[in-house]
Write a structure and sequence with these properties.
Layout (H helix, E strand, L loop, with lengths): L11 H14 L12 H8 L3 H13 L3 E4 L3 E4 L9 E3 L3 H9 L2 E8 L18 E10 L2 E11 H4 L3 H6 L2 H7 L7 E10 L2 H7 L6 E10 L5 E10 L3 E3 L6
Parallel strand pairs: 3-10
Antiparallel strand pairs: 1-2, 4-5, 5-6, 6-9, 7-8, 8-9
Helix pairs in contact: 1-3, 2-3, 4-7
Organism: Bordetella bronchialis
InterPro entries: Bact_HTH_transcr_reg (IPR050679), Chorismate_lyase_/UTRA_dom_sf (IPR028978), Tscrpt_reg_HTH_GntR (IPR000524), UTRA (IPR011663), WH-like_DNA-bd_sf (IPR036388), WH_DNA-bd_sf (IPR036390)
Keywords: DNA-binding, Transcription, Transcription regulation
């Protein structure tokens, strides 16, 4: 029975590659053993043979599979275990985590408008800079962040904010005082866009975080909506006795 979604914006061969990669990761197919033939997999997933071939070719490029003359396609190594991004609850440890990972700017807009903050989150400023970034650890995407930074703060160090993670940069600025930092978390599923950026299947578990920093007057300095890969994040929360 097929586990593929025909009407998904994610191509069938990428969906299939995810499933095959998962089988290797779970050691259903051990290193050194042959996977089923293209015809067998095509029948199992109810897709064309070319779709299976494309999925197998992708995993071959990743080094998980290799053709062997006279044998078929062999599993060459186990899929890597998911990286773990430990999300601490202190602002400084959060800054350190972002400092140790890399990011790619997806969108930058100095006239995007104001953050969709709840009424009780704080007071909105006059204008904000909008940035959307894809964050990576060891070359693999683990988060997509859509953030709003108060325009006045951005203008104090525009090049740093463009090229570095925003939270560590904020923490270094003596002219900025974060009086209160709050984040809320919920569990959801990846939509088509998040799935594409995080390299997971649509509908995969994700962690959604809304993060707000305000100054002593209650002015919102920073607002972010973050989507993390659910299988790469571990939250550590210390419970008070």
């Amino acid at each position: 029975m097929s586990n593929l979604t025909q009407d998904s914006p994610i191509p069938l061969y990428l969906q299939l590659a995810d499933i095959l990669r998962d089988r290797i990761g779970k050691r259903e197919w051990l290193p050194g053993t042959c996977i089923p033939t293209l015809e067998t997999l095509a029948a199992e997933f109810q897709v064309a043979r070319i779709t299976v071939r494309q999925a197998v070719q992708l995993l071959t490029k990743e080094g998980l599979l290799a053709p062997r003359r006279g044998l078929g396609t062999v599993v060459t190594r186990a899929a890597e275990s998911p990286n773990t991004v430990v999300m601490q609850t202190s602002l400084r440890s959060l800054a350190a985590m972002y400092e140790s990972t890399s990011a790619e700017m997806l969108t930058f807009d100095e006239s995007h408008g104001k953050p969709p903050a709840a009424a009780d989150a704080g007071t909105l400023g006059d204008s904000y800079v909008f940035m959307r970034r894809q964050h990576f650890t060891e070359g693999q995407p683990y988060a997509v962040i859509s953030l709003y930074l108060l325009q006045d703060i951005f203008q104090r160090a525009p090049e740093k904010f463009r090229s570095r993670a925003v939270i560590p940069t904020l923490m270094e600025m003596k002219s900025v005082r974060i009086e209160r930092a709050r984040q809320t978390m919920s569990i959801g599923s990846a939509d088509a866009e998040a799935a594409r950026l995080l390299r997971v299947r649509a509908g995969s578990p994700v962690v959604n975080v809304t993060r707000v920093f305000v100054d002593k007057k209650g002015l919102i300095l920073y607002y972010a909506d973050v989507t993390y890969r659910g299988d790469w994040v571990r939250w550590e929360i210390e419970l008070q006795p």
